[in-house]
Amino acid sequence: MLITATVAVHAVVVLVHASAHRVFVIDMSWPQNAFIGLFVIAAPIVAGGLVWTSCRRAGAFLLAASMFAALVFGLSHHFLVPGTDNIASVPAAGWGARFRLSAFLLAIVEAWGSAVGWWGIRCFARAPS
Question: Can you tell me whether residue 6 is helix, strand or coil?
Fold first, then answer.
């Protein structure tokens, strides 16, 4: 299923990006970590599980909403707001290249995941349970 594949790809990219965070010791505040834990990591995984139950429309909605929230958070922190989490603050080579690439991939996958979630909401509204 497309939603499951999207959640799996997102999880892999998040792991690579988190590894780059650890290499560069990019610490986030506790509210940022709470947001990341809930909306970037947990909610998409829960959504991916829900689409395999009778709550599949709720799962699609959770995926769309969490991926959109993660996209807005990532775009602002990785590309707009100056700071250690901005792609301009890491070196271009080595793990810096992984950090930058994973930030771009997160934006792409999260935009895709949001669209897939909205598509799922529509499809599951028409499909029989």
Answer: helix
At 72, give phi and psi (nearest 5°).
-60, -45
The whole-model pTM stands at 0.92
Give just the sign of the alpha carbon dihedral 16, 18, 22, 24. Answer: positive
| pLDDT 10s digits, 65-100 | 999 999 999 999 999 999 999 999 999 888 999 999
Q: Are 124 and 53 in contact (CB under 8 A)?
A: no
DSSP symbols for 47-89? HHHHTTSTTHHHHHHHHHHHHHHHHHHHHIIIIIS-STTSGGG
Alpha-carbon span 7 to 15, nearest angstrom = 12
